[in-house]
Automatic annotation (TrEMBL):
Every Metallo-beta-lactamase domain range: 13-193
InterPro entries: MBL_Glyoxalase_II, Metallo-B-lactamas, RibonucZ/Hydroxyglut_hydro
Cofactor(s), by name: Zn(2+)
UniProt name for this protein: MBL fold metallo-hydrolase
Keywords: Hydrolase, Metal-binding, Zinc
Alphabetized SUPFAM superfamilies for the sequence: Metallo-hydrolase/oxidoreductase
């Protein structure tokens, strides 16, 4: 059985998720900032990270990538459509806000494109391409474990913004309808910000999903 821990990182309180197994191996999802906080948690728990996986490449999800990659000598996974975003502030969004430093992160080690399944060590997950918030947004579904990490595609009672580079409300709603709302009703969805939810809860109460 997998265990999932999360911590809120950086000025926008982005959810970073640590998914670990009984062998004390783990995957790091969306380390948005505060690398030292993540390192301290992993050391305290005795966890050995195998990889960093990104739901997308906006600045608030990538700030600690280089520090963690260097510390643990692990690869970074990202969708191919955002391969240039890590190092370009105009694409990752950091150049949009004067109060945010420009984020220039090294290139991803593994570019995902069309894969349906991904295995890293003993971790197996289904990849759901969920564009709309950004073109390369990915949701990572651990179906047998009953949870999915969905980035900024869907939130409790809301949806991801679509006014950033290559965002599309039409694509976002299609992604939610086809990829997320078809998951089991009680599947726990862990978003990039805020508390977890389920497809059942969002179908019943999310004002953006009327008619789903």
């Amino acid at each position: 059985m997998l265990k999932i821990n999360h911590m809120e990182l950086g000025p926008i309180q982005t959810n970073c998720y640590i998914v670990s197994n009984d062998a004390k191996q783990c995957l790091i999802f969306d380390p948005g900032e505060e690398a030292e906080k993540v390192i301290g948690f992993l050391q305290k728990k005795g966890l050995a990270p195998l990889a960093i996986l990104l739901t997308h490449a906006h600045f608030d999800h990538i700030g600690a990538v280089d520090d963690l990659r260097e510390e643990f000598k692990i690869p970074v996974y990202l969708h191919r459509l955002e391969k240039d975003w890590l190092g370009r502030p105009n694409l990752n969004g950091s150049g949009k806000y004067p109060m945010v430093p420009d984020y220039r992160i090294g290139e991803a080690d593994v570019l995902l494109d069309g894969e349906k399944q991904l295995q890293i060590g003993d971790f197996r997950m289904e990849l759901l391409h969920t564009p709309g918030h950004s073109p390369g947004s990915i949701s990572y579904s651990f179906g047998t474990e009953g949870f999915a990490i969905v980035g900024d595609t869907l939130f409790r009672g809301s949806i991801g913004r679509t006014d950033l580079i290559d965002g599309s409300e039409k694509k976002l709603l299609a992604s939610i309808r086809v990829s997320l709302m078809t998951l089991p009703d009680h599947m726990v969805l862990f978003p990039g910000h805020g508390p977890e939810t389920t497809p059942e809860q969002e179908a019943a109460s999310n004002p953006f999903l009327n008619g789903f």
